[in-house]
């Protein structure tokens, strides 16, 4: 089948948009918490409402995609994201923001399910691995840029700023004391544009492979009785919980313990957390060609534990600042390794299993909430120690896992050829 370069590029752009809308929460959380006079626990409801949408929508999104096909569900996803961002832009209140984040999160969950089979068909199966890595680079690039845009908008619309053109227009749409809400008008504009881009695009016919189909409820019930399925569900739950349990509290921690500004240094730390995660993914590809994935996972988890301790207990602001950035690098390979270990640990129903694993993304809702609750009662430093619970589970899983198929390294390949 001839490669559809336009559709491949469109999928890359969708990955970019998903990340751009998703990974801003860590930078925004401290200023939203202060402006809405929320406790740490209440502030943690913001990521909870966003990521719980993944848990609710991942399996239904697969069923919808099989029935309605990719184009319709992608338009539906962007309509959901547009509605969430637009309504919050109009009514910037805490309760409205919770609902807004759920609608945006639901849209992003639907997109995640729809675009991977589309990328496989459009780019060709033989190029799928390469295109998947490229898609992750787009994803990582957006995670790096969105906190930068947030910081720029807040600075330009602040007392010392000199906004002009589009930025001035965005400022006119939001209250003077809530300039950060302007980023949600940007989200609304992007989602609105994507609705028309997807609508105007010609989509190839996608025939889902057996391991891409969500399956029926009976299949899912059968899988949920499998101990391996449950263990890896909690593996994804623990990973995303760790990722968001750190990212969402970086800026608040640096403000609370080191007096750094959330809209400047805090946003930069979050920005580089995601940026180094992208760089780590590239390095991880090379390491997985040299070493067993379980060993690579254990090394990166151990590094994350040491780095997090440095970030939390260093009395020096600069050391803590850079340690939090480095946490992104340490977390970089965890998602892909845990997911692939899980998929390689059962022999059938991979599409249904994938949907169950993606539901584990709701860990990004639960861990930040627990951190916030503990922070209100014992301090944020103590609250962030909860991330060691999720990291410890991941370390245990890296020992317990017994995949049916291990990742091929250059050494195992040579052994097979000998």
Q: Can you walk me through this structure?
A:
Helix content is 78%, strand content 0%. It has 418 residues and is mostly helical. It has a single domain (5-417), classed as Up-down Bundle (Growth Hormone, Chain: A), CATH 1.20.1250. The radius of gyration is 21 Å and the shape is globular.
In short:
The chain is mostly helical and 418 residues long. Helix content is 78%, strand content 0%. The protein is globular and about 60 Å long.
What does the secondary structure layout of this molecule look like, with pairings?
Layout: H1 5-22, H2 25-35, H3 40-43, H4 45-68, H5 70-90, H6 94-123, H7 128-157, H8 165-172, H9 182-200, H10 217-224, H11 227-247, H12 250-258, H13 262-287, H14 293-313, H15 317-331, H16 334-343, H17 350-359, H18 363-378, H19 380-384, H20 387-400, H21 410-417
Helix pairs in contact: 1-6, 1-7, 1-9, 2-12, 2-13, 4-5, 4-6, 4-17, 4-18, 5-6, 5-9, 7-13, 11-15, 11-16, 11-17, 11-18, 11-20, 12-13, 12-15, 13-15, 14-15, 14-16, 14-20
Return the CATH class: Mainly Alpha
CATH superfamily: MFS general substrate transporter like domains
Distance between the termini: 35 Å
CATH topology: Growth Hormone, Chain: A
Helix content: over 70%
Rounded mean pLDDT is 88
Q: From the alpha carbons, calculate the radius of gyration and give it in angstroms.
A: 21 Å
> Can you tell me the number of structural domains?
1
Q: Per the principal axes of the C-alpha atoms, what is the gross shape? A: globular
Structural class: mainly alpha
Low-confidence spans: none
Count of alpha/pi helices: 21
Please summarize the sheet with the most strands. none
Order of helices and strands: HHHHHHHHHHHHHHHHHHHHH
Total strands = 0
- SS strand fraction: under 5%
The CATH level-2 architecture is identified as: Up-down Bundle
């Amino acid at each position: 089948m001839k490669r559809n370069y336009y559709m491949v590029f469109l999928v890359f752009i969708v990955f970019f948009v998903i990340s751009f809308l998703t990974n801003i929460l860590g930078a925004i959380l401290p200023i939203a918490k202060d402006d809405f006079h929320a406790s740490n626990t209440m502030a943690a409801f913001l990521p909870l409402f966003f990521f719980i949408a993944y848990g609710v929508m991942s399996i239904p999104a697969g069923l919808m995609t099989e029935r309605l096909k990719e184009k319709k569900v992608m338009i539906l996803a962007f309509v959901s994201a547009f509605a969430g961002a637009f309504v919050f832009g109009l009514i910037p209140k805490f309760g409205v923001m919770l609902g807004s984040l759920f609608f945006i999160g639901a849209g992003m969950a639907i997109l995640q399910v729809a675009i991977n089979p589309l990328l496989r068909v459009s780019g060709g199966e033989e190029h799928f691995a390469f295109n998947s890595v490229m898609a992750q680079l787009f994803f990582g690039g957006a995670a790096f840029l969105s906190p930068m845009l947030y910081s720029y908008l807040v600075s330009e619309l602040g007392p010392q700023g000199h906004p002009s053109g589009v930025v001035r227009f965005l400022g006119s749409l939001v209250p003077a004391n809530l300039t950060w809400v302007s980023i949600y008008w940007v989200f609304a504009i992007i989602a609105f544009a994507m609705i028309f881009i997807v609508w105007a695009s010609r989509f190839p016919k996608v025939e889902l492979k057996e391991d891409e189909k969500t399956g029926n409820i009976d299949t899912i019930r059968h899988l949920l009785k499998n101990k391996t399925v449950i263990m890896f569900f909690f593996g994804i739950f623990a990973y995303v919980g760790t990722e968001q349990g750190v990212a969402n509290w970086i800026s608040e921690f640096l403000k609370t313990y080191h007096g750094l500004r959330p809209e400047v240094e805090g946003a930069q730390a979050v920005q580089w957390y995601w940026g180094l995660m992208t760089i780590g993914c590239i390095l991880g590809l090379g390491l997985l060609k040299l070493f067993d994935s379980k060993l690579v996972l254990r090394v990166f988890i151990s590094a994350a534990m040491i780095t997090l301790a440095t970030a939390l207990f260093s009395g020096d602001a600069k050391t803590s600042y850079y340690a939090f950035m480095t946490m992104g690098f340490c977390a970089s390979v965890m998602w892909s390794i845990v997911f692939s270990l899980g998929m390689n640990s059962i022999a059938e129903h991979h599409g249904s299993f994938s949907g169950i694993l993606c539901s584990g993304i709701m860990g990004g809702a639960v861990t930040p909430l627990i951190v916030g609750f503990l922070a209100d009662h014992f301090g944020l430093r103590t609250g962030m120690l909860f991330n060691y619970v999720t990291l410890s589970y991941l370390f245990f899983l890296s020992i317990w896992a017994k995949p049916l198929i291990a990742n091929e390294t250059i050494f195992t390949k040579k052994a097979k050829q000998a």
